[in-house]
Amino acid sequence: MPHFCDAIIVCCIDFRFQNYIRNWTDENLKNKTFDSVGLAGSTKDLETVMKQVDVSVKLHHIKEVYLIHHEECGAYGKESTPIKHSKDLKRAKETINSKYPDLSVYLFYLYLDGKFEKVG
């Protein structure tokens, strides 16, 4: 019997941001179901992210992808700049949409104070 869910969320494992992410999903994805993936650096390891998106598409028939990077990411080290995160988020979106053109992909950058900023 197939299982359906609306989306997948990919974010970093950093504990400092988990409450912000949970509050954001409670507010912005209130009536949606979603798979949740936590990886150090979020989409930094794009190959692993794609494997998770593949599973979510295959098993849960998702329609949306939410990719979240954050300020001061230890997995990025000195490369953790808004410009680098924006570049990597956009690369991830392009990679996902090249394989799954019907998926809606949303990109966000999360600040230490909990503010989410759309990346586009």
Structure described in brief:
GO terms for molecular function: carbonate dehydratase activity; zinc ion binding. With 120 residues, this protein is α/β, with parallel strands linked by helices. It has three helices and five strands; from the N terminus they run βαβαβαββ.
Q: How would you describe what is shown here?
A:
The chain has a single domain, classed as Beta-carbonic Anhydrase, Chain A (3-Layer(aba) Sandwich). The protein contains three helices and five strands; from the N terminus they run βαβαβαββ. It has helices at 18-28, 46-60, 82-99; strands at 7-11, 34-38, 64-70, 104-110, 116-118. Strands 2-1-3-4-5 form a five-stranded mixed β-sheet, covered by helices on one side. Pfam families: Pro_CA_2 (PF20393).
Layout of helices and strands, plus pairs?
Elements: E1 7-11, H1 18-28, E2 34-38, H2 46-60, E3 64-70, H3 82-99, E4 104-110, E5 116-118
Parallel strand pairs: 1-2, 1-3, 3-4
Antiparallel strand pairs: 4-5
